[in-house]
Design brief:
By secondary structure, this protein is an alpha+beta fold. The protein contains seven helices and eleven strands. The protein has two domains: 2-74; 120-324, Gamma Fibrinogen, chain A, domain 1 (Gamma Fibrinogen, Chain A, domain 1, Alpha-Beta Complex), CATH 3.90.215.10. The structure holds 2-acetamido-2-deoxy-beta-D-glucopyranose (2 copies). Residues 53-87 form a coiled coil.
Length: 330
């Protein structure tokens, strides 16, 4: 732009033969008067043109800095897109795996439909219900039928939701008997109950998936491939969790082999103090815990909040899901 303007200015001056007359103007008052009209008619437009050039230069450099800003924004978006793609790939891979398992199971189920209906009036797990989402009745050996919330949207098909935190509508600071039997509303927040958890996870090997979202909308997940809870005589001990994977650190390892504790049943390893009271929840407290998913919703006291890593942001959404880990399903 600059070059074009200068070239234009110089070539205009040359073509009018003015370069000599212009310097002469400076020396002689008389000549100056004579050339005043030249100066006015010829030089002024040139000065104006150079002012226009300066403005254009400023606009160009403004546009260049805006472009630079856009390039940076694009780079950021590209990075987050790549991350999203990676997560999608993982999820697609996982769905394919589950789909393959479902397809292998289907023909068998259809052949024996009548028999199954006769023998098992209710499915044993969400994974036995086609396109399972929403609330369904399931049945376990030695236990009455009961409603469960199934989910196929968070981590693939056929998961049973065992705990949900969404809005703080349900109080999770509950007694031993309430944690044993379960509480809350399947349509919003709830805890399934330790006895059912024990019966389900001891009927066959299960995996655990934990979905979490914090105040900054950061998503985290944790997956354990062998989740098992003992019976009431063991204090509903966290017998096993298996191996950890997912987009988070392993914050349940320290709770392995711990009994469950509530404010009225202190089974933790902390001597005099009661972790269930201090952390305001029910959990497999050691002394006390890296994770506190049954803590108080939006508690002012940080130690009483819902957290997965005490040092990270408070969680506002949690879903704990389980599913049979049928590795040899063909
Ligand atoms: C956990 O991983 C280790 C090594 O990757 C493996 O040997 C072990 O069997 C796994 N445990 C379970 C419960 O799958
Ligand atoms: C917990 O989170 C903090 C902060 O994000 C991090 O520095 C720390 O390594 C995490 N703890 C563990 C055990 O992963």
């Amino acid at each position: 732009m600059k070059i074009i303007c200068y070239t234009l200015t110089i070539s205009t001056m040359l073509s009018l033969g003015l370069s000599h007359d212009w310097s002469f103007c400076e020396l002689s008052k008389q000549m100056e008067n004579q050339c005043a009209s030249y100066c006015y008619h010829v030089v002024k437009p040139l000065l104006h043109m150079s002012e226009v050039c300066r403005q254009k230069d400023a606009q160009v450099s403004e546009l260049q800095s805006q472009m630079e800003e856009l390039r940076i924004k694009m780079a950021i978006l590209e990075t987050s897109l790549a991350e999203k793609e990676k997560q999608c790939e993982l999820r697609i891979e996982h769905s394919k795996e589950i789909f393959a398992i479902e397809m292998r199971r289907k023909p068998k189920a259809q052949e024996n439909t009548e028999e199954i209906v006769k023998d098992v009036p209710f499915p044993l797990s969400c994974v036995d219900i086609d396109r399972s989402s929403g609330i369904h009745m399931i049945m376990l050996p030695d236990i009455e039928t009961f409603p469960v919330k199934c989910d196929s949207g968070i981590a693939g098909l056929g998961w049973t939701v065992i705990q949900s935190r969404l809005d703080g509508s349900i109080n999770f600071y509950r007694s031993w008997n309430e944690y044993r039997d379960g509480f809350g509303d399947l349509k919003s927040e709830f805890f399934m109950g330790l006895e059912k958890l024990h019966r389900i996870t001891s009927s066959e090997r299960h995996e655990l998936f934990i979905f979490m979202r914090d105040w900054n909308s950061q998503l985290r997940s944790a997956r354990y491939d062998d989740f098992k809870v003992g019976g009431e005589q063991t204090g509903y001990e966290l017998i096993s969790i298996g191996n950890h994977t997912g987009f988070s650190d392993d914050m349940l390892r320290g709770n392995l082999h711990m009994k469950f504790s509530t404010f009225d049943r202190d089974n933790d390893k902390c001597g005099d103090s009661n972790c269930a009271v201090d952390l305001h929840g029910g959990w497999w407290y050691n002394c006390c815990s890296d994770s506190n998913l049954n803590g108080g919703y939006q508690e002012t006291l940080k130690s009483r909040r819902i957290f997965w890593n005490y040092s990270s942001d408070e969680l506002i959404t949690v879903h704990m899901l389980i599913r049979p880990k049928r590795v040899n399903l063909s």
